[in-house]
Amino acid sequence: MEQTNVTVREAAADDAPQYAEAVAALIRESAQHHNIHPRNVEDIRRWMTEGVAVIALDEDGIVIGFCYYHLWSDRMVTHSALVVRPDRRRQGIGRQMKDQLHVMVERDVPGAVEISRTTCPVVVHMNERIGLQQCPLSDLTSDPAFWHECEHGCRDYALVNAPGSDVGQPNPIGTRCCCTGLIRRQ
Hints:
By secondary structure, the protein is α+β, with helices and mostly antiparallel strands. It contains six helices and nine strands. Helix content is about 35%, strand content about 25%. The chain is globular and about 50 Å long.
Protein backbone atom coordinates (compact mmCIF):
# COMPACT_ATOMS: atom_id res chain seq x y z
CA MET A 1 0.00 0.00 0.00
CA GLU A 2 1.53 3.30 -1.11
CA GLN A 3 1.52 6.19 1.35
CA THR A 4 0.90 9.66 -0.06
CA ASN A 5 2.03 11.37 3.14
CA VAL A 6 5.60 10.13 2.77
CA THR A 7 8.41 11.94 0.97
CA VAL A 8 11.10 9.72 -0.54
CA ARG A 9 13.94 11.69 -2.10
CA GLU A 10 17.65 12.01 -2.64
CA ALA A 11 19.26 13.25 0.55
CA ALA A 12 21.15 16.53 0.29
CA ALA A 13 24.05 18.12 2.14
CA ASP A 14 21.73 20.37 4.11
CA ASP A 15 19.86 17.27 5.37
CA ALA A 16 22.96 16.03 7.21
CA PRO A 17 22.80 18.34 10.28
CA GLN A 18 19.08 17.75 10.72
CA TYR A 19 18.72 14.03 9.99
CA ALA A 20 22.03 12.13 10.31
CA GLU A 21 21.66 11.32 14.01
CA ALA A 22 18.07 10.13 13.53
CA VAL A 23 19.19 7.90 10.65
CA ALA A 24 21.99 6.42 12.76
CA ALA A 25 19.48 5.69 15.55
CA LEU A 26 17.08 4.05 13.09
CA ILE A 27 19.86 1.82 11.75
CA ARG A 28 20.99 0.92 15.31
CA GLU A 29 17.42 -0.03 16.22
CA SER A 30 17.07 -2.17 13.11
CA ALA A 31 20.42 -3.88 13.82
CA GLN A 32 19.01 -5.21 17.08
CA HIS A 33 16.57 -7.40 15.14
CA HIS A 34 18.02 -7.75 11.63
CA ASN A 35 21.34 -8.59 10.02
CA ILE A 36 22.48 -5.01 9.36
CA HIS A 37 25.43 -3.34 11.01
CA PRO A 38 25.16 0.10 12.59
CA ARG A 39 26.67 3.06 10.75
CA ASN A 40 28.25 6.06 12.44
CA VAL A 41 26.82 9.55 12.19
CA GLU A 42 29.90 10.93 10.39
CA ASP A 43 29.52 8.39 7.56
CA ILE A 44 25.82 9.13 7.23
CA ARG A 45 26.56 12.87 7.01
CA ARG A 46 29.20 12.18 4.34
CA TRP A 47 26.81 10.04 2.25
CA MET A 48 24.15 12.76 2.42
CA THR A 49 26.69 15.41 1.45
CA GLU A 50 28.07 13.29 -1.42
CA GLY A 51 24.57 12.80 -2.85
CA VAL A 52 24.59 8.99 -2.63
CA ALA A 53 21.77 8.59 -0.09
CA VAL A 54 17.99 8.41 -0.12
CA ILE A 55 15.86 9.51 2.80
CA ALA A 56 12.18 8.93 3.58
CA LEU A 57 10.33 11.44 5.74
CA ASP A 58 6.81 11.38 7.13
CA GLU A 59 4.38 14.28 6.94
CA ASP A 60 5.99 15.82 10.04
CA GLY A 61 9.52 15.64 8.63
CA ILE A 62 10.49 12.67 10.82
CA VAL A 63 12.94 10.14 9.35
CA ILE A 64 11.20 6.86 8.56
CA GLY A 65 13.67 5.37 6.09
CA PHE A 66 17.17 5.55 4.64
CA CYS A 67 19.58 3.85 2.24
CA TYR A 68 22.68 4.74 0.24
CA TYR A 69 24.86 3.36 -2.52
CA HIS A 70 28.56 2.61 -2.49
CA LEU A 71 30.89 2.37 -5.49
CA TRP A 72 33.57 -0.33 -5.15
CA SER A 73 36.97 -0.44 -6.86
CA ASP A 74 35.73 -2.59 -9.76
CA ARG A 75 32.79 -0.31 -10.72
CA MET A 76 30.30 -2.46 -8.88
CA VAL A 77 27.75 -0.57 -6.81
CA THR A 78 25.91 -1.82 -3.73
CA HIS A 79 22.66 -0.57 -2.28
CA SER A 80 23.34 -0.44 1.45
CA ALA A 81 21.74 0.16 4.85
CA LEU A 82 18.14 -0.01 3.67
CA VAL A 83 15.99 0.62 6.75
CA VAL A 84 12.37 1.57 7.30
CA ARG A 85 10.94 2.37 10.71
CA PRO A 86 9.06 -0.73 11.94
CA ASP A 87 5.64 0.96 12.18
CA ARG A 88 5.96 2.16 8.56
CA ARG A 89 6.94 -1.15 6.95
CA ARG A 90 4.73 -2.89 4.37
CA GLN A 91 3.67 0.46 2.94
CA GLY A 92 5.93 0.50 -0.13
CA ILE A 93 8.49 2.89 1.39
CA GLY A 94 11.45 0.52 1.04
CA ARG A 95 10.51 -0.15 -2.57
CA GLN A 96 10.26 3.59 -3.30
CA MET A 97 13.71 4.13 -1.77
CA LYS A 98 15.18 1.25 -3.82
CA ASP A 99 13.65 2.71 -6.99
CA GLN A 100 15.11 6.16 -6.22
CA LEU A 101 18.53 4.67 -5.44
CA HIS A 102 18.49 2.72 -8.70
CA VAL A 103 17.73 5.92 -10.67
CA MET A 104 20.60 7.70 -8.90
CA VAL A 105 23.07 4.91 -9.68
CA GLU A 106 22.10 4.90 -13.35
CA ARG A 107 22.55 8.70 -13.46
CA ASP A 108 25.75 8.94 -11.38
CA VAL A 109 27.62 5.76 -12.35
CA PRO A 110 26.54 4.89 -15.90
CA GLY A 111 27.48 1.38 -16.89
CA ALA A 112 28.10 0.25 -13.32
CA VAL A 113 27.11 -3.23 -12.22
CA GLU A 114 24.61 -3.09 -9.35
CA ILE A 115 25.01 -5.77 -6.69
CA SER A 116 23.51 -6.67 -3.37
CA ARG A 117 23.97 -9.19 -0.61
CA THR A 118 21.29 -9.73 1.98
CA THR A 119 19.74 -12.25 4.31
CA CYS A 120 16.36 -10.50 4.12
CA PRO A 121 13.79 -12.06 1.75
CA VAL A 122 11.96 -8.72 1.43
CA VAL A 123 15.15 -7.02 0.18
CA VAL A 124 15.77 -9.92 -2.23
CA HIS A 125 12.28 -9.34 -3.66
CA MET A 126 12.80 -5.56 -3.97
CA ASN A 127 16.13 -6.13 -5.73
CA GLU A 128 14.59 -8.60 -8.16
CA ARG A 129 11.83 -6.09 -8.88
CA ILE A 130 14.40 -3.54 -10.14
CA GLY A 131 16.17 -6.13 -12.28
CA LEU A 132 18.78 -7.75 -10.05
CA GLN A 133 19.01 -11.52 -10.31
CA GLN A 134 20.22 -14.02 -7.75
CA CYS A 135 23.78 -15.16 -8.36
CA PRO A 136 26.67 -16.95 -6.68
CA LEU A 137 28.66 -14.74 -4.33
CA SER A 138 31.66 -15.24 -6.62
CA ASP A 139 29.87 -13.02 -9.20
CA LEU A 140 29.91 -10.07 -6.79
CA THR A 141 32.80 -7.67 -6.29
CA SER A 142 36.20 -9.02 -5.36
CA ASP A 143 36.99 -5.78 -3.49
CA PRO A 144 38.21 -7.00 -0.07
CA ALA A 145 36.67 -3.98 1.70
CA PHE A 146 33.19 -5.14 0.63
CA TRP A 147 33.71 -8.58 2.16
CA HIS A 148 35.50 -7.34 5.29
CA GLU A 149 32.31 -5.45 6.21
CA CYS A 150 30.84 -8.86 7.04
CA GLU A 151 33.25 -9.29 9.94
CA HIS A 152 31.89 -6.18 11.65
CA GLY A 153 28.21 -6.30 10.87
CA CYS A 154 27.00 -9.83 10.24
CA ARG A 155 25.59 -11.60 13.28
CA ASP A 156 26.24 -14.95 11.53
CA TYR A 157 29.86 -14.29 10.55
CA ALA A 158 31.44 -16.37 13.33
CA LEU A 159 29.08 -19.28 12.69
CA VAL A 160 29.60 -19.46 8.93
CA ASN A 161 33.36 -18.99 9.26
CA ALA A 162 33.93 -21.45 12.10
CA PRO A 163 36.49 -24.16 11.27
CA GLY A 164 34.80 -26.92 9.27
CA SER A 165 31.63 -24.90 8.62
CA ASP A 166 29.68 -25.69 5.48
CA VAL A 167 27.05 -23.00 6.16
CA GLY A 168 26.67 -20.37 3.46
CA GLN A 169 28.95 -20.19 0.45
CA PRO A 170 32.52 -19.09 -0.18
CA ASN A 171 33.05 -15.51 -1.30
CA PRO A 172 35.84 -14.14 -3.52
CA ILE A 173 38.24 -13.47 -0.63
CA GLY A 174 38.04 -16.95 0.87
CA THR A 175 35.69 -16.43 3.80
CA ARG A 176 32.08 -17.67 3.87
CA CYS A 177 28.83 -15.72 3.69
CA CYS A 178 25.20 -16.67 4.37
CA CYS A 179 23.74 -13.88 2.23
CA THR A 180 21.89 -14.17 -1.04
CA GLY A 181 23.91 -12.49 -3.78
CA LEU A 182 22.16 -10.45 -6.46
CA ILE A 183 23.49 -8.69 -9.54
CA ARG A 184 22.18 -6.41 -12.29
CA ARG A 185 24.38 -5.80 -15.28
CA GLN A 186 23.50 -2.80 -17.44
